[in-house]
Design brief:
By secondary structure, the chain is α/β, with parallel strands linked by helices. It is built from five helices and seven strands.
């Protein structure tokens, strides 16, 4: 696993020991950034369920202004911090050892341009996370994007949200990316 573009291009990232995280492949990460746009200049990025931090670090490497990483796992938090150090992107990041749901239930001090959601698989955590975001949508700036990374078998059709609308969905082997735009509720 490595950073594929930007200021930290080519830097190899550390993995979290064990099977608690599911790292994103370089192919999926590249496709993700091609879809959301490679110009991250000035963007704010929230990486929920951070794992290794690979996606938020990719955003920072491509010019994002700041990234916030959350993970409840102590080892994952330490790996994110180390990956930020070896990429020299730590000045542009905040790493929090927090529960994502407790975090999202609070009123946000600011909205993010991108919220990346790649939770543990097969527990419907992605749907619970989107529901929590829908109930407190200020975490995502109006017109900006929430991105889900799950196994295709986890996806459930016909889930409707008040403040988000799906605008793209892609499958890459055993990884599905779903893109939601923050919209005005009626």
């Amino acid at each position: 696993m490595r950073v594929i573009a930007g200021s930290a291009k080519g830097v190899k990232l550390l993995s979290v020991p064990g099977k608690t995280t599911r790292p994103i492949t370089d192919q999926v990460k590249e496709a993700l950034f091609n879809i959301i746009g490679v110009d991250m200049e000035g963007k704010l990025f929230l990486d929920l369920f951070g794992g290794t931090g690979a996606v938020g670090i990719e955003a920072l490497s491509r010019g994002a202004e700041h990234a916030v990483f959350l993970d409840i796992n102590y080892r994952a938090v330490k790996i994110i911090e180390e990956n930020l150090r070896i990429t020299q992107l730590h000045p542009y990041a905040t790493v929090l050892k927090k529960d994502a749901f407790a975090f999202l239930r609070k009123l946000p001090k600011q909205g993010f341009d991108f919220v990346y959601i790649a939770p543990p698989q097969y527990r419907s955590i992605w749907a619970k996370t989107m529901q929590t975001l829908d109930e407190n949508p200020g975490w995502v700036r109006l017109g900006e994007t929430a991105i889900i990374q799950i196994h295709p078998k986890e996806f459930v059709e016909d889930i409707n949200y008040t403040n988000f609308s799906e605008f793209d969905r892609r499958i890459y082997g055993d990884t599905m990316l779903i893109f939601y735009e923050r919209t005005l509720s009626e």
